[in-house]
Please model this.
Amino acid sequence: MAGWRSRFFRIGIILSMLGAFYLVALASQAERDQLRSIDVHLTPTCSEKLQAYGLTVADEYRSPYIVKAGGNPVSAAGYTAEDVRAIQRGCNIVDDLQGHLSPTGVRERWNATRFVRGTHTTCTHCHQSAGDKHDAEGKRPVGSNNLGASWVMADMYDRFTGMILSNELRQMQCFINSSNGFKPNISDDVIRDVTAYSRFLAAALDLKMGVRYPEQGLDEIPASATSRRGDDYVRGARLYAETCASCHGPQGFGLVVEGRAVYPAVAGPHSFSTDSRMNFAAVNTIMPGFICRNMPPGAEGSLDNQQCRDIAYFLSTLPRPAGDLKGPLSAVWQQAMMKIMPPLTRYAESIGRGQSLQSDQ
Amino acid sequence: MSVRTRPWVKHFALSSVPVAAIVLVAIFAHFGPSAGTWRAQLPPAPGWSEFQSANGIDEFGEDGYFIRAVQHGYGLFYYTTEYAPRFTRRTSTDAVHSCSGCHSVEDLAHGLVTSDRFDTVLRKRVSFEERVMRCYAQHLDGFVPTIYDPAVRDLRILARAVGHHLQLSEGVRRQKE
Model:
């Protein structure tokens, strides 16, 4: 009899737990449905951009950007209110992943912080101007990581992973490596909204399917594009101190104002991981390309190819989180370095400054 | 001499079971019904060469991987019962037994560029992949592949290749003829 009671009790507990999980799933789904239906509070960048591109609920979409440029825009399928909200949320996620500019916090970003480890990461740090950068003349700069151009060239073979990468899988890689975080589900609203926004950019800019535009991705700079002096992290350290440290900090930890990363970390615990393509030690052409084409803001193109490679080399020597592929020993080592190196570097630099003051006197 | 007196025989027999299982899986992966999906070289489906040249497949994609995926997509589209038998109950004797029974490849390309929109019937935004999965389950009277399955992915890549050939922009609808 006692055995039956015990068995019945255990089955009851299991059924209760399954029921509780089911209720939690239902509540989560209902919350998502509610979030999908509420009006979106746009960030200033997104508000300006989406207004300029004429995003409204309509049966037909004709890009005002193309009209303004003197072109004849194609007639594209319009957007429903649900589509418009998805595009707006996608823009917000790209511009402000951590929800600092949202009145309801990160909830309006589908709690995207659960997919990143640091507090700095947002897509717009690499995909500048919410993934759609324009120069002073209104042109889209070469190698500016345009998200619309990425969408039309998705599904290509990726030489780093050896896979055909869809747009969604590429976004997942950004979360894992560039954000040193975790992979969202391919059907997660975070991924789907960013895809919706990228596709809208492709429509607004009238980008053709499968065409490689210069603003797509980064303009890689191999050693062969330099005068072959060789990459030098000592030169890179000096250049970094002169050109980059005023924004990113002397040790690359970024600048945070009122909890928001104004300038992102390029080293340390809030930075991209060692598995990221931005890591010069992993791929030595991408970070120099990003620096040369996009840095420093307002003075892009002021650094030559060798200088960009030197700075990227120096950055790769700074401690940062180990990527998942590197294994636990590397992770422990990098964690230790991120603790030990900053005070040691400060101390070493203070000695250097003292000696230089004495020699000046 | 009985087996009881030779324990190594029993030990050998037990340890060979997992090895045999692994060998069987490897043989199945090599010769199995979907083996074509995993091979580096696909035997071309009838009409592939003509399709390839007519749609300029070789001019798009930076490598053979993309073209191979398009080739597999072509097989899935025109010969669904042979290329995706796991996901359809239809046979070649049915009137409609492939994607091409309802759609043209141009439809597919336009379907890609106008996907990810709100569907008034389903009351939600529907991606291209979900449409393909629904086609397998409903129109092809079969089963839903996962979103990562080559049976879904390669149809999207086929649509992308044709979309490139037609120079489609995002959201462009097909003109009624």
About this structure: Chain B has two domains: 7-38, 48-173. The CA atoms of residues 73 and 155 of chain B lie 5 Å apart.
